[in-house]
Every structure is written in C-alpha cells, then in structure tokens.
Amino acid sequence: MNFLSNNIKHIRTLKGLTQEQFAEDLKVSRSRISSYEENRAIPPIDFLVDLSEYFNIPIDILIKNNLSGAKDTTFIEIGNRRILFPITVNGADEDLIEIIPVEASAGYLRGYSDPEYIEHLNKIKLPFLPTGTHRAFPIKGDSMLPVKSGSYIVARFVEEISSIKDGRTYIVLTLNDGIVYKRVFNKMEEHGMLLMVSDNKRYDPYYVPIDEVLELWEFTCSINTQEYEEHELKLSSIASMLTQLGVELKELEKIYK
What pTM was estimated for this model as a whole? Predict the structure, then answer.
C-alpha cells in the first residue's frame, strides 16, 4: 500500500473536499482520515471498498499506482489506461450525464480527454441508471438496425477493456473512426484486436487494433428520436425524452415489484 495514503489525500484535494467533509461522506471520524493520509494506520478492507465506490476507482488502482500526477477529477491517466471519476454532481450530490449533441459528435474525438470540453456539454439527471459513469451518444447510419439513425445511446464507461462481454453492444471511440456503435467481441488474445459486428448484415464485420481504442462505453438504454423532425432535435427535446424514459422505467419498476 505504498501509494494509498498519498492517493487518498491527493484525490480528496482534487475533489475539493476537506478532511471533515470527506470523513462525513464516508461516515468515519476526521482523525481516522488523517491517520490514513499520514500513513499512520492501514485502512481495513471495508473502508477500501467504500473508498473505491466513492471515488469510482478500482481498489487495485488506488493501492498499486501513484495518482499524484492527476491534475483533474474528470479522469486519471495510468499508463495507457484512462480511469474516469463520476462525471458531475448537482447540488443534491446526484450523478449527471453529459449529452453529446449531433453537431459536436465529430469533435468528441478531439475533446474527449479535455476537461474543459466535457464541462461545457449539456447535462441531465437520470436517477434510474445503474452505478457508473454514463454519457448519451448520437447514432448515425443504419448499421445497427432496429436502432435508427438519430437515436441516442446512453452508455456506461468501461474501465477495463478486457472486461468486454462478447456479443453485447458498445459505443467505441476509435482513433480513426471516432464514435461507432457496434456489437463487440474480444479478440485480444488471438489478434490483439476487437471484432466489430453490425446488426445490419449489409455491413461486414471488421477488426480494430486494441491500441486504437480510446474509450469503450457499454450500452445501458436507447431513445428513439424518429417522432421528431430533424430541426426539432434540440438538446432540450433530447433531455426531455431521456428524462421521461427514466420516469417510465421507474413506474414499471413499481408495477413489477
């Protein structure tokens, strides 16, 4: 646990928290936080689990890696891996997700790692989502029918590419193609690549080298925008549809409980 004490202090500072605020959030005493940050005590496993969930960073990353080089709480670079923090929270400490607008999707390849670019994206609250970092991405083309061009995919950030579940759909940010939505298969051991498969059989499968994959986001839900004319597809209408989806899922949850 050579790095843990410094990592706790550094990430707490990046998030703008005092020891008192941090201790209150984790329901421990301030003196206990101080003892961990000053390396006077070793945190028990239950605290490490709480810490991992609070920071949204795997325990092994917190313990084995020096995170002191991180300059922003949006993400941390570890070698060639990119670990995201929870995106943004509102005043009620609830996760918000960013919406990537159609007109800005081409620029996402340039701005995905720029905290200022991400900060200026429109955000909405979707409390029905599972834990994790989510974004909403616009889909173009007909390669993933019945998901139509103009639909939005809400997806959860995948920290470990090796954790891909073969045959599930993902938003993949690639060095050469930008944002694509495909059914993905892990072929890293055999070829060092991911196999990208379209649901529309008119499109042939293809491979993407793993070193060209910049981000991977696992499908959570989709929203069809076909009822709107193209000129009506403003961020406000997309946000409204996504929020309504959350309301509908909440109501279904009540019915089937």
Answer: 0.59
Residues pairing with 194 in the sheet? 186, 208
- Residue among 36, 58, 41 nearest 49 (CA): 58
pLDDT of residue 221: 83
Q: Across residues 109-120, what is the average pLDDT?
A: 76
Query: pLDDT at position 244, please?
Result: 53
Q: Are 207 and 195 in contact (CB under 8 A)?
A: yes
Helix axes 30-37, 19-26, angle to 10 degrees: 110
Q: How far apart are the C-alpha atoms of 73 and 115, rounded to whole Å?
A: 9
Structural contact between residues 121 and 153, judged by C-beta atoms closer than 8 angstroms? no
Cis status of the peptide bond prior to 146, with omega within 30 of 0: yes
Portion of the chain with pLDDT greater than 90, in percent:
31
Q: What share of the chain is helix, strand, coil (3-state, %, to 5)?
A: 35, 25, 40
Q: Give me the DSSP letters along 32-95.
A: HHHHHHTTSSPPPHHHHHHHHHHHT--HHHHHHS--TT---SSEEEETTEEEEPP-EE-TT--E
The owner of tokens 């051991």 is: 189
Phi, psi of 113, rounded to the nearest 5 degrees: -100, 10
Helices (DSSP H) in the chain: which residue ranges? 4-14, 19-26, 30-37, 45-55, 59-64, 108-111, 115-119, 188-191, 235-256
What is the rounded CA–CA span in Å between residue 95 and residue 125? Answer: 7
